[in-house]
Amino acid sequence: MTRSQRDEILERALTYPYAVPERSFLYLAGEALELPDGRRSRWPAREPLLAYGANAAPAALARKLAPLPDVPLPVIRGELRGFDVVYSAHVSPYGAVPATLHESPGTAAPVYVLLPTAEQRAPLAASEPNYEPTRLSGIELRLDPAAVEIVAFAATPSAPGSASLSAIDAFLSRHGCLSLAGSPVALAAIRALGRSFGELDEPAVLERVRAHHSPERDLESFVLACAAAGGLSALSELRGP
Fold first, then answer.
1. Which residue from 21, 126, 127, 142 puts its CA 20 to 30 A from 231's CA?
2. CA–CA distances in Å: residue 143 to residues 76, 112, 147
3. Which DSSP category does 79 fall into?
4. Cα–Cα separations (whole angstroms), residue 195 to 86, 114, 132, 185, 214
């Protein structure tokens, strides 16, 4: 493995969940563009898909949708109430501890709603071997009202002035959430309101996992070993504080 390859693996792991615009946007060929106002009728009906970790990041979408660079993907910013974005109890095939959702009354997590075509949905699903397709029902998912006025999709609220959904498809971790001293650990990079869980950034949570599971390694070699092995699942509960 070359130094540049090592650096690429480490950067991808340690910078999870990557930069995402704090607004609704149109993803196209690796870029986050403005939604095309005034073209609502041009968008065919699409089934929405919740993105709460890296799946709305243009850098992640560029990898996942590389075979379809010229197919636009509307991305609507939203707020999911009663949930927080926490770490999953596994290390991904690219060496990061990725995200999942956990119920958290009183919390409002910033999320995104992807509107993929069926052609785009297939590679998105194929990129999630550690996640189970799940229908979230009975939820309160508030959407960017300005974006809803622009983009028509299959579950667009029909009530005038409404910009919320009560059900949506999502990918949830097959391994559950990572536990630190008996509690889920939230992603510090995801700025949820009313957060009740403790939080860590990605380098800090990877260091906790490394110290618990591979104390003989340094962080760099641990991340590289996880990536070489295709990830690490069923992480044990971590000790506090």
1. 21
2. 7, 8, 8
3. E
4. 11, 24, 25, 11, 30
